Amino acid sequence: MRFDKLANINEAAPLISMEGIVKTYYEGQPEELEILHGIDLTVQEGEFLAIVGESGSGKSTLMNIIGVLDKPTKGLYCLDGLDMGLASRDAMSEIRNRKIGFIFQNFNLIGRTSALQNVELPMLYAGEPYSRRIRKAKDLLESVGMGDRIRHQPNELSGGQKQRVAIARALANDPSILLADEPTGALDSATSRIIMDLFHKLNREQHKTVILITHSKELAAECPRIVTIRDGYNVCDTKGAEYNDIS
Amino acid sequence: MIFLENIRLALSSLVANKLRALLTMLGIIIGISAVVAIVTVGDAMTGSVNQELQAFGGNNITVGLQQKKQPAAPSDGKGSSAAGADAANADSDDPVEPGEADLITPAMVGEYHSVFASQIKAISTSENLGSLELSNGKEKASVLIYGVNADYPKAEKLELVEGRMPTQTDMEESRSLAWVDEKFVTKYWGPREVPKNAIGKELNIELSGRMAKVYVAGVYRTSLNGGYSWGSEDTTKLLLPISLGKKLAGKPEGFNSITIMPATEADDVALQVNTDAFFSSYYTQNRHITAAATSNESYIKSMNKTMNQLKLAISAIAAISLLVGGIGVMNIMMVSVTERTREIGVRMALGAKGGLIRFQFVVEAIVICLIGGFIGVLAGIGLGIAGSHIISYPVRPSASAIVVAVSFSAAIGLFFGWYPAEKAARLDPIDALRYE
Lengths: 247, 436
Prior knowledge:
CATH class of chain A: Alpha Beta
Structural class of chain A: alpha/beta
Distance between the termini of chain A: 44 Å
Largest sheet of chain B: 6 strands, mixed
Largest sheet of chain A: 6 strands, mixed
Mean pLDDT of chain B: 83
Helix content of chain A: 25-40%
Oligomer: heterodimer
CATH architecture of chain A: 3-Layer(aba) Sandwich
Number of helices of chain A: 8
Number of domains of chain B: 2
Structural class of chain B: alpha+beta
CATH topology of chain A: Rossmann fold
Strand content of chain A: 25-35%
Radius of gyration of chain A: 18 Å
Number of domains of chain A: 1
Mean pLDDT of chain A: 89
Largest interface: A-B, 27 and 24 residues
Helix content of chain B: 55-70%
CATH superfamily of chain A: P-loop containing nucleotide triphosphate hydrolases
Low-confidence stretches of chain B: 75-92, 225-231
Order of helices and strands of chain B: HHEHHEEHEHEHHEEEHEHEHHHHH
Shape of chain A: globular
Number of helices of chain B: 15
Order of helices and strands of chain A: EEEHEEHEHHHEHEHEEH
Strand order of the largest sheet of chain A: 6-7-8-3-9-10
């Protein structure tokens, strides 16, 4: 893998290590806009944390950087000991493919493509052979309770079902991090519960690192760790139990 | 693997927008079918013209007598151009008919034959001896009487139906024999008469006031399929040995023209030049008349050249249609990329590299063009075959034209699909994911 060649490989490093992350848009132009003003964040493997913030707080920008969709303007971001600031566009694609499992608010399944093929997709991009892809995709769909709907296309599934397929897809390449952006934002409360329980189960049973980005305080409250972002600064980093008291 | 996956994706997106895909393909379909149809019909036209000219004696060389071009009239010293022009006009207004002394003699022909024996298949000599209406009391049939030599049937591509063809001995002995067209048999002896029964029958002919009896030695059929005919359907040629014919008609021994059929392996053009030189050498001392060799070969060549230029010109117009079609494909690919911006963002988030996204859209454009190309080829073959049947010279559609057309349509897909695909590949995943 190309990103193995990147610098700062350190076995003992935490999963995510961010120091003084600054993100500036329209750099050098009159409308220059600094969104993140120096975020520090360390996440160990197997953690379940929520990143909370009002809209406009910069949490989406932070999520993009954590998810290797974007690079910080200043500061150091190491994922699994690799310096993301040095990664090329193609290397970033590869890292997203192997290390990040995205779950979106609006599911973002590929249309006219079955649940099975959606789950296969990250493995296809990783160059996995067909038979292994199919087997793994079936297993994953089974594990999220969608084993009987593998041939269904997204438009034949309910919101909760779509999100479960999306979670299966996020797990396809055994990523280091499940990065969920408002995963229950488009779901009713009962379905939200199922999805949140699924995250808890994945974290508890498979020790998956889950990062939940949300503006909902109730949702954040059930996470063991909560990082609050306001106006581009991280204002507090609390354990779930303390969170209710602060807010 | 990814390649097959991309073809599947391209097909499913085409199926999802059937009408749009069809409209996009239309330009390609029209362009490709036009090219294939034009090439096929062009081949049919060239073939049909060549066939007719070949039947007519396509590569035969004709040696004929013609008036010599007069050198400019001797000037009186002043060199007046007006006087020179007058003299030239005076000459061309005063054609000189070849006299008996100017004719091509059998000796020349014999000499020619011995010099060029290896390059020629046949030397046909014939003489029109006049027309005649034969009557047997019940039926009438008009004929053109021709004196011919033994090579005449070969050069004129006559087929033997019954009896035998003229031989050298028939010529030498001036035998009282005749060869008739199969149409003449039914016309003269009634519709139920078979050619076989005509052999040996007696015909009374009259030439230049002299009566003669000849016996039918053979019945022939002309292999010209309607392309060329020498008169009405009813008038057929009655062939006599040339020696007999000339004797009866009181004609001199020489010929106004002879027809030379080159051997298959001979270089027709060189033979024509040499033949021309050979015969004109006999006329260097002749003041007015010379012999010249002409051939249809050059005519056929220029005909083919014109035909090819015509094909090229029409193909250029068809190429414009392909260009327009290609732009249509590009347009629809731009729309498709915009429509699927979000999908592209998701694919990138899942780890698709830019190159892979580009590949996906290029494959989609090529698939559209190839399907259009295949439909176009089928339509073109249909039109071409229909067209070639109208010309009544059925040809098989040119395989090379089909291969070129299909690869050209793939190339159009690649060329016009590249830019939209590149645009997709360069999308920023964050913007693409956020796209509404």
